[in-house]
Amino acid sequence: MRVGFPFTGNEVELPVYRKLSLLGFVQRLLTKRCASFFARNDKYLLLSGERGASGFEPIGSLQEQAPLQLEQVLSYDEVKLSALLSVSSHTEFINEGERTNCGRVTRNRRSLETQGVIMGLIGARLSRRNLMEFQDIVIARTQNTKQQGYGQEEEMTPTTREQDYRRVWRHFYETPDHLHGTVSIDNKRFGVSGNKQDVFDNLVMKRRYAISFDMLLLEAQARALKANKQAYIHVVGFGLGVWKVAPQQEQIFLETFEQRLRVLHKQLTHIGVVHFSWFKLTRCGGLRDGAVLKSSSHPLGGIRVHLSKRNPAAKLDKPEQENMLLVVSYAWDGNALPGNEFWMKMLKSTGDSSTACSTLITELHNPHINTDYCNGNNLHIVSLQHGVLHISEYAKILLAQSK
Asked: Are residues 145 and 160 in the same domain?
């Protein structure tokens, strides 16, 4: 969706986008996904039942081919935006949610948390070169060129669609982009990447993570506040599996999470515990199993941290965990329905599919089933200043501030 003034869409894009409102566009991001979309070769299952692999890059251009056409499916540029959305709701837990649960029903309900909040978060998909977040985070020889719009001075007016597209993402991440060869690895801002010719921008990776972490923390705060409970947040490493391309990504993930906890601590009065589960690192900065990030504004004196292996819906059985609200995050995908591989009967291949087998996300977070709730009109904005607000309330605040 490379549309920006003074550049208009092509004859494929214009009929799709011309009449879309913001909420209509969000609805499109929810409903035009594949049922399943995974692997390096983009294996897919469409809502129509058609299956295949690859062919997503031309979507939205004059070269697109059925069944992968913009009218029916998301383009890669849209998937990049879709990855910034999250869906959350209360759910029942069918079992503890271990990777191999395959929908087993736990009869002894006292052995697990039976209810809580479930929230799908989407990491940076860096495994596809020159696409999605790779465009912003990895500095690559064939990608970061003037022809692709990189390296423009901020005051310059874009003269090509490529330059205009890069302008949008430079503004989004609030940092210049770079031509390949103009920066080098310093193990500070710029680190190594899987391809030895690439440079990994650690700063932009942090900013991408921060968006998801703020959503998780402030949504958990809002849910727990409404329930008059402390939240116990189960955190998984989204984007750290097959999408990862740099060895330092897990450390960046944990460093950024700690930074966001400290920045937001005055607002997180109802976050009791943050439990990082199934990470390789056993400590990072102030994060270690049993640590407390102290805060004078927190009713418990601070937020307790755990860094150990834990199943998502495992029983909260310690005295200090009594009456806590379990908030479980899981790694979702920007171009698939909740469950992803679940819809192709792969029940234990990923955290996405195992979560579908242990919760109610395949219906509750499905825009084709739960049409009133999982709908663009129900869009909420996570704001550092105002918390979680319906977009109508958020718009009223912005309008009042602009007067």
From this structure: yes
275 with 346, same domain: the answer is: yes
Mean pLDDT of 309-321: 96
Whether residue 377 lies inside any domain: the answer is no
* Number of domains the chain is built from: 3
Cα(215)–Cα(27) distance, rounded to whole angstroms? 19
Residues 6+ apart with CB under 8 A from 158: 4, 7, 149, 152, 164, 167
How crowded is the C-beta side of 81, counted as CA atoms within 13 Å? 17
Q: Is 284 found in the same domain as 186?
A: no
Q: Are residues 315 and 283 both part of a single domain? A: yes
Chain segment 222-244, per-residue pLDDT in tens: 999 999 999 999 999 999 988 99
First to last CA, the chain: 32
Nearest to 29 by CA among 40, 20, 41, 18: 20
Structure confidence at residue 155 (pLDDT): 86
Name the packing angle between helices 202-227 and 249-263 (round to 10°).
50
Q: CA torsion, points 103, 125, 3, 26, in degrees to nearest 10?
A: 20
Q: Cα(103)–Cα(90) distance, rounded to whole angstroms?
A: 18
C-alpha dihedral (64, 68, 71, 77), degrees to nearest 10: -80
Same domain for 321 and 291: yes
pLDDT of 3 > 60? The answer is no
The reply to whether 386 falls in a domain is: no
Residue 57: count of CB within 10 angstroms of its CB: 16
Q: Where are the strands (E) in 267-324, listed by range?
A: 271-276, 283-284, 287-288, 292-294, 302-307
Q: Are 381 and 388 in contact (CB under 8 A)?
A: yes
Domain residues for 329? 85-125+204-370
Q: Are residues 240 and 311 in the same domain?
A: yes
Q: Are residues 236 and 338 in the same domain?
A: yes
Mean pLDDT along residues 337-357: 97
Locate 129 and state its tokens. 């070169």
Instruction: Tell me, yes or no, whether 175 and 305 share the same domain.
Output: no
Greatest extent of the chain over all pairs of C-alpha atoms, in Å: 65
Instruction: Report the percent of the chain where pLDDT is more than 90.
Output: 96
